[in-house]
Specification:
Glutaredoxin; 12 helices; single chain; about 40% helix; 4-stranded mixed sheet; about 350 residues; globular
Length: about 350
């Protein structure tokens, strides 16, 4: 609840009105739900991914940077060469985070806060920008779900199972009780044909999964004190709302998160809303593109003609050609015979004195 009060103070009166009474705030409040407005109109902020090296880059290190630049993920790539003088902001970053070469470090968007670090190689670069869990989250969101709740496991099965059971029960209840805001004529148009409905799901994430270490790090470091089993509602283009952990993972906080996601959007800049963007390689724009309308076949005015009867043997083009050749050969033979007879008669007449 403290989080929501802080959010309300940040967003100002229009955002508070969006959750209760639609008063004179039409200029800044629209009735598109937050989860849908975020998906269509909030581009994911870029992570600052820094490659730390010493001297010239090796071919393998260049390949790793190429993977990052060609990934299509929300990131910007920079380099720090420890063998050369370093500018003040980066020098402070190296000192504060104790960066050494070679290595990669990803900073949360718009901050100097570490979200993940790893080796400067292609395997680490690929894992940083993409993973099976993130592909599944993107698939569900682009399939029309309001939000995917990533359940970051603690490693204690009993506690994780209990948290999943509680979360699943409350989400099913919210799907039945939450009401989407009614459409208003002044609302901006929707930009895709995805359904607008209250729909949640849970995706469990193991902290020890080697393929998901960058995602685990981005989630776990997004707030201080996130220990044990933590639930993160992920919505929009991979934006994680506040994590619910320990005693903070309860029916009330789950309901508050659901109400925020499905409530009327304040249409403010994304930065004034709670949450942090995660690093995704998903092509959100392509996923939102509506399939083009395929025109149906025109209804014929006349009845279709019945199929033609099968032609008799030899009546086709090949048969006609063969017949023509035979006729030409017969005619040629007749001409030849006639010519010989005429020639013979001519010779007989000459010999007879005519």
């Amino acid at each position: 609840m403290v989080r929501l009060l802080l959010v309300a103070l940040l967003l100002g009166p229009p955002a508070v009105a969006a959750g209760s009474v639609a008063g004179p705030a039409r200029e800044t409040v629209c009735n598109i739900p937050v989860f849908r407005y975020a998906l269509e109109r909030w581009p994911a902020a870029p992570y600052d991914v820094v490659a730390v090296h010493r001297g010239s880059l090796s071919d393998a290190e260049i390949a790793a940077l190429t993977v990052l630049r060609q990934s299509g993920a929300n990131l910007e790539v920079d380099r720090i060469n420890l063998a050369e003088p370093i500018a003040a902001p980066r020098k402070d970053l190296v000192r504060r985070l104790r960066l050494d070469a070679p290595g990669l470090v990803a900073l949360y968007p718009g901050t100097q806060t570490e979200a993940w670090r790893g080796p400067l190689d292609t395997a680490a670069a690929r894992a940083l920008v993409d993973s099976p869990a993130r592909r599944e989250v993107a698939r569900r969101i682009l399939g029309g779900q309001s939000g995917v709740w990533i359940l970051l496991e603690s490693g204690e099965k009993g506690k994780d199972d209990a948290a999943e059971a509680l979360l699943g029960k409350e989400l099913r209840s919210l799907e039945q009780s939450l009401q989407l805001p009614a459409h208003h004529p002044d609302d901006p148009p929707l930009l895709s044909d995805l359904p607008v409905a209250v729909s949640f799901s849970i995706l469990r994430l193991s902290r020890s999964d080697p393929a998901e270490q960058p995602l685990v790090s981005m989630l776990a470091k997004s707030e201080l004190g996130l220990e044990g089993t933590v639930a993160f509602p992920v919505f929009g283009r991979g934006r994680a709302l506040w994590g619910l952990a320990g005693a903070g993972l309860n029916a009330q906080t789950i309901a508050e998160s659901g109400e925020f996601l499905t409530g009327a959007c304040s249409c403010e800049a994304k930065e004034f809303n709670p949450g942090v963007d995660l690093l995704f390689a998903a092509d959100w724009e392509a996923g939102l593109s509506a399939a083009p309308d395929v025109p149906g076949l025109p209804v014929p005015v006349l009845q279709p003609r019945p199929p033609e009867a099968a032609p008799p043997p030899g009546s086709g083009p090949e048969g006609a050609g063969l017949f023509l050749w035979i006729a030409l050969l017969v005619a040629g033979a007749l001409v030849a015979v006639s010519g010989r007879r005429i020639l013979a008669l001519t010779r007989h007449d000459r010999s007879s004195g005519f």
